TrEMBL record:
Coiled-coil blocks: none
Segments forming domain Histidine kinase: 282-490
Keyword terms, alphabetized: ATP-binding, Kinase, Nucleotide-binding, Phosphoprotein, Transferase, Two-component regulatory system
PROSITE patterns reported in the protein's UniProt record: HIS_KIN, PAC, PAS, RESPONSE_REGULATORY
Domain (PAC): residue spans on this chain: 217-269
Origin organism lineage: Bacteria, Pseudomonadati, Bacteroidota, Cytophagia, Cytophagales
Molecular-function annotations in GO: ATP binding; phosphorelay sensor kinase activity
Keyword Transferase: yes
Entry EC number(s): 2.7.13.3
Protein name, as recorded: histidine kinase
């Protein structure tokens, strides 16, 4: 027994179409085209004017709109343009009585899904155009949804993310990049990236590696904020290739590691100071007692020796000076390494700086140097231990004066308030500068570039600044001078 054939009924979802057409005859012709069997899933409604068309579009009840080019004083292009302004995203097909390339281009540029010439439309063409428009609208909606998703990730990322060309010029950037560099997105598009790098060789190396290898990871460099502040950053860049594997554009991430680096340096400094403290306490214990005995013995010896002898006086003075020098070294070692007990009070930072400058004013005049000052007019009240800050700043000022040539030195002292709620004093000289190797060791205990120096002044200065939870920055170029920045929290 042969089983009875099953009747398969294909369920088709109804496509709601609105024809916006001011000619009833054209409506009847269009209705006839959608009435054929192959277009059975299409349900056609009709309005006969521009205003009624917009009113229907505003309700959003239709899947596709067929729009006549001539609508009284308006055109179908006017209607499509207004519909998109109203937020309509349903596909629109423009109908016209003549084949006009200009109209075709205008319609497609404004977002029309298709363009049909009335005299050339048949049922199959109309049905295919409608279904194509729906599929296209569905794909575009999906693309827009994905774009919004990834755009949201791009915009809300805490990391600074950017898109660039092969010259590493910005094409797009998120708000974290704007915050990191101080430039708006539009400004970044026209900005020469060379302005952002403290070392142009780093930019050249970055470009070379990206072009040569298609990517670079965690490239460490110094970037310059719009206000001149420098930040240590890690840059990762990779190429996005086109269909045939050629780099089309580049995307990258910038991570600001300045605070991380500073924390590492503070930890290293703390370890150095701890080591110095242990050495100092050991020396104080092992050396001070015999040093005291040596000093007492020297005084006793002076009473026994012929003080009229030139040689006796010379040698006892040499011994005395060196005993005092060893004692002073031990005291300075202890003072430079031990934690500072601060008496912090609200102080006007400008006044503290001016008082410290008074302590070196005679030295500046004696060496016939010029002093240039600039003091902030912003609120510079900060919690400071006045005497300790003056000690720290005095070490910097004395070093600056001694680094410059007599009669040619220019000492520049400037105060300002930062956007991170800190007060800053900037001390610049036009001396011989410091090499990069020496700059790295500048705050090491016992490191000094001065003959007869103990190398503990800057160590003590950094200890004082760290006790205030502040920071110190140094920039120097050999032959061009040095700039120290001392920053203290308000």
């Amino acid at each position: 027994m042969i089983p009875a054939a099953l009747d398969v009924v294909e369920k088709k979802e109804t496509i709601r179409i609105l024809l916006i057409e001011d000619d009833e005859d054209d409506y009847l012709l269009t209705k006839a085209l959608v009435s054929v069997r192959e277009n059975a899933s299409i349900k056609l409604d009709w309005v006969d004017s521009y205003d009624r068309g917009l009113a229907a579009i505003d309700k959003g009840e239709y899947d596709v709109y067929l729009v006549d080019y001539r609508l009284g004083p308006y055109t179908g292009i006017d209607l499509i343009q207004e519909a998109f302004r109203m937020g309509c995203r349903a596909p629109m097909i423009l109908l016209t009585g003549q084949d006009d390339l200009t109209v075709d281009q205008s319609a497609l540029e404004l977002g029309a899904a298709d363009y049909l010439v009335k005299g050339r439309i048949d049922a199959q063409l109309l049905g295919r155009s409608i279904r194509y428009a729906l599929r296209q609208a569905s794909v575009l909606a999906e693309v827009a949804q994905k774009e919004n998703k990834y755009r949201s990730l791009f915009e809300r990322s805490i990391d600074a993310i950017f898109v660039a060309n092969d010259e590493l010029r910005f094409q797009d950037a998120n708000s974290s990049v704007e915050q990191l560099l101080g430039y708006s997105r539009d400004e970044l598009r026209y900005l020469n990236p060379a302005r952002l790098f403290a070392d142009l060789n780093h930019l050249r190396n970055l470009r070379f590696n990206v072009r040569e290898h298609g990517q670079i990871k965690d490239f460490e460099t110094m970037l310059i904020h719009r206000n001149g502040r420098k930040r240590i950053c890690l840059i990762s860049v990779w190429a996005v290739e086109d269909m045939i594997g050629h780099p089309e554009w580049y995307q990258g991430i910038v991570r600001d590691i300045t605070d991380q680096k500073r924390a590492q340096q503070d930890l290293i400094l703390a370890e150095k100071l701890t080591m110095t403290g242990k050495i100092a306490r050991s020396i104080a214990h092992e050396v001070r007692n015999p040093l005291t005995n040596l000093s007492l013995a020297l005084e006793q010896l002076k009473d026994e020796l012929d003080t009229d002898s030139e040689y006796v006086t010379m040698f006892t003075d040499i011994i005395g000076r060196n005993v005092d020098r060893i004692g002073q070294l031990i005291t300075e070692m202890l003072n430079s390494s031990k934690p500072r007990d601060l008496d912090r009070k609200k102080q006007d930072f400008n006044i503290v700086v001016k008082e410290t400058l008074q302590l070196v004013s005679d030295r500046i005049k004696l060496k016939r140097m010029r002093l240039e000052t600039s003091f902030t007019t912003d609120d510079s009240i900060a919690l400071l231990d006045r005497d300790q800050v003056k000690t720290a700043l005095l070490n910097i000022l004395v070093n600056a004066v001694e680094a410059m040539e007599e009669g040619k030195g220019i000492l520049s002292v400037r105060t300002h308030c930062t956007d991170t709620n800190r007060v800053c004093v900037e001390v610049s000289d036009n001396g011989g500068g410091i090499s990069e190797a020496d700059r790295q060791r500048l705050f090491d205990p016992f490191f000094t570039g001065k003959s007869g120096g103990m190398g503990l002044g800057l160590t003590a200065t950094q200890n004082i600044i760290n006790s205030h939870k502040g920071s110190i920055e140094v920039e120097s170029n050999v032959g061009q001078g040095t700039t120290f920045r001392l920053l203290f929290p308000k």
